[in-house]
Amino acid sequence: MTALRATAPRTPLGRRFGLLMGALLLSSLGNGLCFPFTSIYISQLLGLGGRAAGGYFIAMAAASFAAALAGGPLADRGSPHRVGALGAAALAAGYALLAPAGSVPLVLASGVCVGVGFGLFYASIVGIVDTAVPESGRRAAFAIRHIVNNAGIGLGSVAAGLALHGADTPAGTLRWLYLANGLAALPLIAVILGVRPRARTEPKERPGDAPPSGPGPTYRSLLRARPMALLILAQGLFAIVGFTQIEATVPLLLHDRMAVTLGWVSVVVAANSFALIALQPLLRGRLERLPETVVLAGGPVLWAVAFGCGLGAALVGQAAPAAVRYGLLLAFAVVFAAGELMYSSAFYPLLLRWSGEEAVGRASALASLAWNLGTACGPPLGLFIVAHASATGSWLALALGAAAAFAVTAALRGRTANT
Asked: Against a cut of 0.85, is the pTM above it?
């Protein structure tokens, strides 16, 4: 898998994978119904104030951290499907609890349940997806999973916007949306349990480029292996310099520093989502012929190019023809999407190979924790940059962040190229 691949027919991913993606799409659509509104719902519409909203997110983060650490070993010792189903059940309960919530204790209980759900789910989903597809289909499977998650959240957000538009009682409407979110997670429980293998397979041999395990598949022994430690570091950097920036920083940069209308901000964000869907079948074969470490390193390179397109739009300014300015912004959205696909098709296959099947739950938990840390740090850093730098300075800072992520992935390639 580390050498250039010859062209081969695409591997069918199978019915179990299709069922799993359908359930994940429904669950992520439910998340899209609610996640942009939670702080407003708790603090204003329920009248519980900002402290209650903050308490919800603190409780969720703490519970997610603890559940991920506990869920990794559970998934390794038993079945990731049981852990994933338990996580989906906790998500369903947590979101449903917000529907009747009217007091701080119920809000905090909801935050704990949702945090436990996310922690267990993300500690197990890598193993669940892996057992649903042949090994040769891993890279396509994880790229499709990334697209399904984004598409579901996007569709859910659109549906929520339509439901809330002109609603006489937004709080009442949101109560129904949170209930719908909880219900949307229920099919996921049934599908996860339904697609689990009937007989547990023996762990596969570690490939020659896998890092040596320590005395056991513990968190410490995983992080002692330099390639795995670099991979987990790269995961946090991808969240900080990439994914959170397109979600939180770039829209503010476009609107506040470049005078781009909200309508065009929405177009740029939507173009990124549609590009993910359109590019996946076009890039899949090309990416699968390259080593995963090369593909992973290519992601931040494309992000730097994308930020360069944004820089170009800032430099030409409002005096330039609209086709030039907005064409550069649309190019940013499309090139950034290509970088996302390179990440999603390479990161988790590498994680699986280097952890070994006996430690994939722990490795997934570490990746989830790195991601959560990155998503917590990324938006404040990006918003600080936008508040204190010009449009050109902000785009340059974003490109430098992508360069830092590339440096880590290039070091990762150097560590494994000769193994």
From this structure: no
